[in-house]
Amino acid sequence: MNIETSVKPHDRLAAYLRGDMEKVSALIAERMASEHAPRIPEVTAHLVGAGGKRLRPMLVLAAARMLGYAGPYHVHLAATVEFIHTATLLHDDVVDESKQRRGRPTANLLWDNQSSVLVGDYLFARSFQLMTEPGSMRVMRILSNAAATIAEGEVLQLTAAQNLATDEGVYLQVVRGKTAALFSAATEVGGVIAGADDATVQALFDYGDALGIAFQIVDDLLDYQGESGATGKNVGDDFRERKLTLPVIKAVAKADAEERAFWVRTIEKGRQEEGDLEHALGLLDKHRTLAATQQDALGWAAKAKAALAPLPDHEVKGMLLDIADYVVSRIS
Amino acid sequence: MNIETSVKPHDRLAAYLRGDMEKVSALIAERMASEHAPRIPEVTAHLVGAGGKRLRPMLVLAAARMLGYAGPYHVHLAATVEFIHTATLLHDDVVDESKQRRGRPTANLLWDNQSSVLVGDYLFARSFQLMTEPGSMRVMRILSNAAATIAEGEVLQLTAAQNLATDEGVYLQVVRGKTAALFSAATEVGGVIAGADDATVQALFDYGDALGIAFQIVDDLLDYQGESGATGKNVGDDFRERKLTLPVIKAVAKADAEERAFWVRTIEKGRQEEGDLEHALGLLDKHRTLAATQQDALGWAAKAKAALAPLPDHEVKGMLLDIADYVVSRIS
Question: Are A287 and A251 in contact (CB under 8 A)?
């Protein structure tokens, strides 16, 4: 294996986009400032400084650069996407009463729920200011639609998560909303700002959509088989929070009466006891649902790669293909 | 007193704008729907159905109509403003842990904090979708700036509210953010969409700004002297929530050592005991700060009216002048 291929594709893309990403970071720092309320940059910096992978803004930049866009507005759109993502994380941690994010205590724990809700609102508003700057109605429509779809997906998750009737179709709808909508909006606006034709914009959307779905399925799978160090989360968090994700949905579909009663008690009614997580893991193992979930994730990664097939060869295209593999590499 | 003048100005304006407001209501109902997440219209309808005065959307319509705009986009902008307002209320009630709003239990009590946070996010996103539809960059800039200013004001309030160093200047900044920003954006975009000249747009902004400040000061005053039935809130809520509003800020400025120790204990440290609210009311009375706060509100209402002076006579202008009086009539 030569050095070139041993470097993670995400890091190769980051290196390729370094100049642009520095501009994105500078713009984020500038726009998260608040003359009157120092709490805002404090909370935002805690989350932004924790070093997420910044995959979403990179997708905007990558799509735009792959199609020959010379700037400057891909930077604004990348920052827009990162602000929407950060706002969503702040609100998610309040909704989930999370205590850890990216291996650090959450903002709602370090400050309070109030700060997380209101600073999230501020970042949403900032994202809307940013998205107007390129002056493209189409870009604004895509990004404001994505913001609505994200919130809709989160609300749907709230009502579907503890309902054993939730099937794989509803799960996919939730995932498309809460995760894939921002991925696909990121790649789509990258294409739109570069003036790409409709077929290319559609291909970019499809890539982002499938990549986002693969990403979320991997996340849900790692919740049952990952390690706290790798994910910044604790194994079984979703079970304890009574979130019906794909591994459990598949196990519920195959459950006998006794197993069903177990899921009703632990997920629907939330009456969990010592040893329940271990029992749940045993049921996932019995029905081989972790393996089946893994196959689904690999399938979506393959779809993401297939979507890019019609696009001409380009250094960045190769990296995007590799990123689809990389997203699922944590589970394969 | 003839019938004409005995009807509240707000109701006269509502009657004048009835056709437009019906379109706004229909648009709100259409856009708060969610194909996938029925929880969204449930929560929204609870709040929208509680019958707020809809003053903010009426301000958009009034400004646009006064300047001869024939439509249709003033309806979209009115709905935008109402969505931003509703989203803000949902999040405020989470932040304040409120139990009552418009005389009914709050959404966070009837459902949960999660629903209030996420449905609020959905309405924010919907408001941004709506504001793009007229296709005016200037309108989008005004409204997205207002959304950022609102969130900034709320965060500032969070950090300033329990700090006895908060003076009237900081209070005004908070009020401009959390309340006046949406009033002034409403009147301003009404003028912009109607194609008004810069001086007229500025006059409309100034009217909305002063009206919003008067409105919030009245609200803060009523918290200490209103009745639960009239305001849908309980007397002393702000004191119990340790919110430093104008009547208390004025009392702190005049406090002797013993009184200051009382405010430090009850507001800064939050160690409140039986009888503290009565003692606080006694101090407001001693320093006559409720009367002084009332004077400030009347002063802002006068400024609102003065702002409209340069505008030509119009039926709607008369109603807007009367509304400035009406806003402060609850306290005079």
Answer: yes
